[in-house]
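tool=predict chain=A
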Amino acid sequence: MVFYFLAFLLLALKDGSLQGYILSVAVPLLIFLGTHLLPRLFPADQVLLSLTHFLCALGVLVLYDVSPTYARHQAIAYGVGLIAMIFCIYLVRSVRSWRLLMLLLIPFSLLLLALPMFFGQETNGARNWISLSGVSFQPSEIVKLSLVLILAYYLSRRRMLPWLLFCGGCLLLLMLQKDLGTALVYYVTALLLYWASSGNVLFTALGIAGGGGAAVWGYSQFAHVRRRVEAWLNPWQDYQNAGYQLVQSLVAIASGGLFGVGLGLGAPTSIPIYASDFIFAVICEQFGLVFGICVLLIYVALIWRGTTIAMGARHSFHALIAMGATLLLGLQSLLIIGGVLKLIPLTGVTLPFISYGGTSLISCLCLAGLIQGVESLNEEALAEDTHLAMLGQ
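tool=predict ok
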């Protein structure tokens, strides 16, 4: 809280902006509410809460430096996401019969995911955004929550057909929208969650082979995918066009050095998509590679805590909820950071909790809420076991 208070205050003094002074109070307040007051409502994993809110506040801070308007929108989404996070914790803790909810969730999610095909707008080659009355949102981010719950429910009951049909419908709709990055995240999450629930190596290997075949087919069918692969292989070959943003990203990271050029300095806007896809490059430029590595370690710690919570669950359904949410957050982080660092081709997904986008931030906080909901059940079960053990003695 002190770090973000001083950081926003520094930027406010530099720009003389009232909004900076407001954020210097509002963002630490959101951190306080999320890390200190929320555990008073439910048992929670304090480490997971602290890391999650540190990343959310970091996104608002970096966005304020490049665009105060973006920062204001992100801070509002952060507040809404905190409420949504509490709702998801309550959902996991309170719902006793999930069958009817699943029957409603499947058609609703498919309908929501199909809307961009009729009312959507195209962004970076994919038609995956909907704009209503000046408010834009990405349905695929919302459906991620349904994906986790539906997979966890049917996999825990060893029912293959419902979740296979749902995932197949989601992937088909995403392919028609040319949103291949999100399709990859959905597919790998479903495959790994299936392997975690069944341990079936043969079908998991067949799924990997099928995913590889789909990737080759996507490369041959979509021009924007071919451009991304060519830019990944040699971005300097077409520096002025396809490789421009990747080269600018690498230059920004290199210019930051070990300890960065400083908050509020550098040239982050020289990267075309600096606020979403390449925000990690902006962080490395301003704070340095050492801070960037620390951010990577925070994501590793998030994955570790989520996996630990899943392994500690008493019921397979709750374990798969926590594992599915952890997989989604981990895969997104791996794909976008790997793309920014030129380790893999760019996929166009957002960096969880940090990238600009209200839908993405709220969705990520909801996923964290699902994990926290499972942890709260774990804590209550452990407390009950301890109480019974004491009575037995």
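The chain has a mean pLDDT of 87. Strands lie at 120-123, 126-132, 135-137.
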